[in-house]
Amino acid sequence: TYTGSILVAVNPYEILPIYTSEQIQQYRDKKIGELPPHIFAIADNSYSSMKRYQHDQCVIISGESGAGKTESTKLILQFLAAVSGQHSWIEQQILEANPIMEAFGNAKTIRNDNSSRFGKYIDIHFNEKGVIEGARIEQYLLEKSRIVSQMHDERNYHIFYCMLSGLSAEDKAKLELQDAHHYQYLIQGGSIVCEGRDDKKDFADIRSAMKVLMFEDSDLWEILKILSALLHLGNVKYNEIELDNLAATEIQDISYINKVARQLEVNAQNLVDALTTRTIVTKGESVTFTMNKEQSLDVRDAFVKGIYGRMFIWIVDKINEAIYKPKGSQFRKSIGVLDIFGFENFDKNSFEQLCINYANENLQQFFVRHIFKLEQHIEFLDNQEALDLIAAKPMNMLALIDEESKFPKGTDESMLNKLHQYHASHPNYLKPKAAVNQTFGLSHFAGVVFYDCRGFLEKNRDTFSSDLVSLIQESKSRFISLLFSSDISMGTDTRKKSPTLASQFKRSLEQLMSTLSSCQPFFVRCIKPNEFKKPKIFDRELCCKQLRYSGMMETIRIRRAGYPIRHSFAEFVDRYRILVDGIGPSHKEDCRAASNKICSAVLKNADYQLGKTKVFLKDAQDVYLEQQREITLTRKILIIQKMVRSWHYRRRYLKMRKCIVVVQSTMRAFQERKRFLVIRQGYMRLQALVRSRMLTARFNVIRAWALNLQKYCRGYLVRQWVQKRIVAIVQIQASVRTIIAQKQLRRLRIE
């Protein structure tokens, strides 16, 4: 549900079919309240606000452990990756960072099967087109003590169980690993399985995600070697002995030491020495002391926590190498998603819980400042006193803890006495009645929590013995040397003066709060419906308690009594001037008078106020103004659309007409040319015919002349021939007659 723009989300403890791509499209470009309450609505409004106002946004997800903060974070990332519209590799990489960080930083607790044991702030970067171009992840205060000890019905970090379930038999043999129930660090809570989790499948997902995020196969193998070494270290047990009248220890089973030495690539004897003795350097001389069993166990656990903590930081840095892109242009806006530990109150609360609850006090104060302190003349509950007690005022609790941590002889008891001395009279500080009781209480915004001070100073010092650093320095493993490069490079004295865990966490938290203060915030309050992690069970009293402690009841009261929505006159005029005719842009108007005119015309007798520089509205009036603005914009847009369509279609018509005229002229020219060619062809045929006839007539005349000439010539020739023949015939006749006459003459002569 919503309280104004704040989403209240109840963990259903089951998978619901309301987070699909269809829902993502449904909630795109929708204002809060248009559709049923949904985490996607918050994500969409943060994205829209970033694009509209060109301002960084943040989504602060808070709630108790088990309320659903991590799942809400993943859903917001899923939505932002989908709406950026590119479906690119960088979006896939950002989403794939989650399984890796959950594996190494989440664990099963009494209250939550997938509890984040660290805080993270995911800053997603967008370019001017609203496309994701990169991201950066900041991690806060990993709970390292979980690696070496867990409470009943809890597990160590998921990665250990995933590794043992997902590795092949061959890889297990190389790492000398067995099943989970063989390792002391994994069985202290009495639970090595987690209902609803498939460790083998999760390990495959982790390997796949690491490939996407540019982890080399060698990187994964080095990580597995370190994890296996930590499990073997957890099985190292000590016997108490006496050496030169001093308490000392010896290791029961040296086989585990050899396994650790092989995985870390260090000398086994040097490892034994580092785990059973300590060296102190004074005035240039080193003195080696034996340690009793308790001290040896502390050193072993410190070694394990130190390695795991540094490896976790390296993994986060490696992820950032893949997803962070340096700012390429002047424009870069971001949406930050804060998923940080919820308020914690266990049977035994230690230094980690104090830091976690201090962070929650800061977030509550940020929420209070944003929601309540902006209201004028309205009383509300403020947790500023608790913040002052913990970290703000002189001689505050963290300062006293830091001070005692720096004293070589400082103990948890001396620290507790100092806290009692300075703060016993503070209303938020609770001193136990019995002096032997090593606890103190704090009244937080979410209730009273009692802290067991045992181990406070050791955890705050967060030191790593010089013997262990020397051991690491000798390691042949480049990876383990890389993890401890900063420790190796600094001297022993420098390490002693390094910042305490409290001061580091306080500085990180101050940077975080500074970042959040520069952003436009959206709030998601996650609510746990029951303590049994079961679906369809609603514990009304538990939910009301969470709502009350998270400030939601106060929020509702304040929002009803005050004016939570406020706009400067200029912003108000520029946004709503379209509702009233005759009002120009803010730089041309008397903004206060124009704002009054708009409110009088639209809101009429509704409950609103005009201040000196701002318009104060209730949620209902703001929603009504937005609705009227949408209606007016829709009407104006229809007119604009009509004119644009008219212009568009007239332009299209003129273009078409011009084209048609060109086509017509071309067709006419074609047809006329075709007709001309036909006529020309006809005329040419006519000309040919006339010429033919003229030539024929002329030919006939000439022929007639020729024939007459031929006739006369033939007649002449024939006559000449006839005459010659007649002459010839006459000659022949004369000759013949001559011959005949000669014959007759001869005959007569004879006679």
UniProtKB/TrEMBL annotation:
The keyword Kinase does not apply. Residues 509-531 are annotated as: Actin-binding. Keywords: Actin-binding, ATP-binding, Motor protein, Myosin, Nucleotide-binding. Gene3D superfamilies: 1.10.10.820, 1.20.5.190, 1.20.58.530, 6.20.240.20, Kinesin motor domain, Myosin VI head, motor domain, U50 subdomain. The keyword Isomerase does not apply. One of its GO terms (molecular function) is ATP binding. ATP binds at G63, E64, S65, G66, A67, G68, K69, T70. It comes from the Eukaryota. One of its GO terms (cellular component) is myosin complex. Residues 1-630 form the Myosin motor domain. Belongs to the TRAFAC class myosin-kinesin ATPase superfamily. Myosin family. This is Myosin motor domain-containing protein. The lineage of its organism: Eukaryota, Metazoa, Spiralia, Lophotrochozoa, Mollusca.
